[in-house]
C-alpha cells in the first residue's frame, strides 16, 4: 500500500478490504476473508488527510469496496471534504448496488466526482456468473447498473477479455447498445496474468493476437452507435493502426513495464506498455521504427 499520494499519479489507491463476494477466475488480487475493514479505514483516513489538495484522482478498490458498508460512504464523504476537486473512481462488481437506499446514499456522498468501474463479463448470464465465480451475479450486477443509472452516476463498464468471452465480444457490444446505453463509456481490457489468472491459465488465457478481430469488431459496433469505447492494457503494436486511437494509458504507473525492444519503438511515448506484474508477456510484440 502507498503511504502517500502524488498529485499527478494514476495510481493513488485506497484499498478498502481483502474481502469479496465474487471469486472472479482471472482476479489479479485474490480475496481473503480477513476482518480488515477498520484497519484499512484508519490507514485510508490518514492518506486522505495528508494528500496534496490538487490530487487529480483517487481509486477505491479491494476486494469489494461495498462490503465496507457505511464506511465506504464515510470514506467518500471524507475525500469530498478534504479533496473537493478530486475524482473518485470506485471499482466494484456492482452487485450491492441492487440495494436502492445504499446506492442513493453513496451517490449523494460522491456527487459529480464519482465514477463507478463495473465489470461486465458477458451478455449471457451463465458465462458472466461463471467468470465472476458467483451464481446470480449477472442479475444482481444488472440491477445495480440500473440503480446507478437512476442516480445519474458516471459508469465505466469494464470487459476483461479472456478465453470464455472473447468470441462473444461483438454480441456483448450489441447487448450494451440495446440495454446499457446509459453507461458513460465501455473499456475493453486485456488480462493481467497474475493471481487467479495463473491458477486458471488453461481455462481463461488467450493471446491478444487471437482475439484482435473480435475486439475490433466490438469497438466498431460501439463506436458506430456513439457509445464511447476505450481499449485498456494492450500495447499499440498489437492493434491495427485503425484502432490505436481507442487505446489508453491504462496501466498504473507503478505496474508499467516496457521490454528492451520497446526502446526503439516510435509509439512508446503513447503506449500503455505491459504489466510488470504479469507472469507472461504477450506474443507478437513488434516495435515500429
From TrEMBL:
<protein>
    <recommendedName>
        <fullName>Radical SAM core domain-containing protein</fullName>
    </recommendedName>
</protein>
<dbReference type="GO" id="GO:0003824">
    <property type="term" value="F:catalytic activity"/>
</dbReference>
<keyword id="KW-0411">Iron-sulfur</keyword>
<dbReference type="InterPro" id="IPR058240">
    <property type="entry name" value="rSAM_sf"/>
</dbReference>
<dbReference type="Pfam" id="PF04055">
    <property type="entry name" value="Radical_SAM"/>
</dbReference>
<dbReference type="InterPro" id="IPR024032">
    <property type="entry name" value="rSAM_paired_HxsC"/>
</dbReference>
<dbReference type="GO" id="GO:0051536">
    <property type="term" value="F:iron-sulfur cluster binding"/>
</dbReference>
<dbReference type="InterPro" id="IPR007197">
    <property type="entry name" value="rSAM"/>
</dbReference>
<dbReference type="InterPro" id="IPR013785">
    <property type="entry name" value="Aldolase_TIM"/>
</dbReference>
<keyword id="KW-0408">Iron</keyword>
<dbReference type="GO" id="GO:0046872">
    <property type="term" value="F:metal ion binding"/>
</dbReference>
<feature type="domain" description="Radical SAM core">
    <location>
        <begin position="16"/>
        <end position="175"/>
    </location>
</feature>
<dbReference type="InterPro" id="IPR050377">
    <property type="entry name" value="Radical_SAM_PqqE_MftC-like"/>
</dbReference>
<keyword id="KW-0949">S-adenosyl-L-methionine</keyword>
<keyword id="KW-0479">Metal-binding</keyword>
Amino acid at each position: 500500500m502507498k503511504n502517500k499520494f502524488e498529485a499527478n499519479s494514476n495510481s493513488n489507491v485506497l484499498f478498502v478490504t481483502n474481502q469479496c463476494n465474487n471469486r472472479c477466475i482471472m482476479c489479479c488480487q485474490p480475496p481473503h476473508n480477513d476482518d480488515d475493514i477498520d484497519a484499512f479505514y484508519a490507514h485510508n483516513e490518514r492518506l486522505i488527510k495528508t494528500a496534496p489538495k490538487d490530487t487529480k484522482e483517487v481509486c477505491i478498490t479491494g476486494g469489494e469496496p461495498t462490503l465496507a458498508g457505511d464506511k465506504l460512504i464515510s470514506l467518500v464523504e471524507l475525500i469530498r471534504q478534504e479533496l473537493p476537486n478530486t475524482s473518485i473512481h470506485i471499482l466494484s462488481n456492482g452487485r450491492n448496488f441492487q440495494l436502492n437506499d445504499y446506492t442513493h446514499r453513496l451517490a449523494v456522498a460522491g456527487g459529480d466526482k464519482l465514477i463507478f468501474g463495473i465489470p461486465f463479463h458477458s451478455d449471457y448470464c451463465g458465462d458472466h456468473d461463471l467468470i465472476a465465480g458467483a451464481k446470480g451475479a449477472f442479475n444482481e450486477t444488472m440491477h445495480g447498473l440500473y440503480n446507478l443509472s437512476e442516480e445519474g452516476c458516471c459508469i465505466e463498464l469494464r470487459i476483461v477479455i479472456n478465453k470464455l468471452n472473447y468470441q462473444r465480444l461483438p454480441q456483448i457490444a450489441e447487448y450494451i447498445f440495446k440495454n446499457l446505453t446509459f453507461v458513460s463509456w465501455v473499456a475493453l481490457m486485456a488480462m493481467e496474468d497474475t493471481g487467479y489468472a495463473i491458477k486458471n491459465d488453461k481455462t481463461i488465457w488467450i493471446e491478444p493476437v487471437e482475439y484482435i478481430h473480435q475486439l475490433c469488431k466490438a469497438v466498431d459496433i460501439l463506436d458506430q452507435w456513439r457509445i464511447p469505447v476505450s481499449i485498456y492494457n494492450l500495447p499499440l503494436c498489437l492493434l491495427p493502426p485503425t484502432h490505436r486511437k481507442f487505446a489508453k494509458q491504462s496501466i498504473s504507473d507503478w505496474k508499467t513495464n516496457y521490454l528492451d525492444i520497446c526502446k526503439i519503438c516510435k509509439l512508446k511515448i503513447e503506449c500503455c506498455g505491459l504489466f510488470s506484474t504479469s507472469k507472461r508477456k504477450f506474443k507478437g510484440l513488434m516495435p515500429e521504427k
